[in-house]
Design brief:
Number of helices: 5
Number of domains: 2
Order of helices and strands: HHHEHEEEEEEH
Shape: rod-shaped
Helix content: 25-40%
Number of strands: 7
Length: 196
Amino acid sequence: MNCDDSLQDTEFDLRARAELALAFEPGDPPAHLLRHTPWHARRGLRGMLAAVLVAGSAAGAAFAMRPPELVRSAIEHEYYERTLRGSFLPATEMARHLDLPPQQALPGYIQLMRPCDIGRERAYHLTTFFEKGGIVTVLSFEQFQQIPDGEGWWANTYWKVVRSHEGRPLILIAQKKQALSVASRALGQPETAPAS
């Protein structure tokens, strides 16, 4: 493009420019010709609202997946006693707290049996090894607790709440999910077959 292009305007260009100059008063254009962007349509505000919505949804999902308070306390308790071994109470007493029949031996290879306190509750802690599953910690409480049945993954640990043969809630905690299913079959209520 040459610097003389403005000099080479056609007569049409000159006439159009002159007519447009006469159409509006010199100065600022009328306000109705300008584009008005409402406050809620601004790009930065929309981005910030989207980020807040995503963060709120993520936080809500995390809190929704949270286990009950007693289960979270049990997981923390198990973490600190994971390497502890020994028998601090008789096997018959532990079997009684797990609602096992008196003649039935404790399942698996026993690693730890002891009474302990979780929060303000007296609990009985059994850590046992199942050949086809792995190490599982079973917690039974002296007083009946209102813990809903459920299972999940929290704090890098799998957990499950099952009912004993007498209906007492037992908290199972393990590093491997397969260990929970083996332990729940050994300690929990027998599953009834669906009626057909």
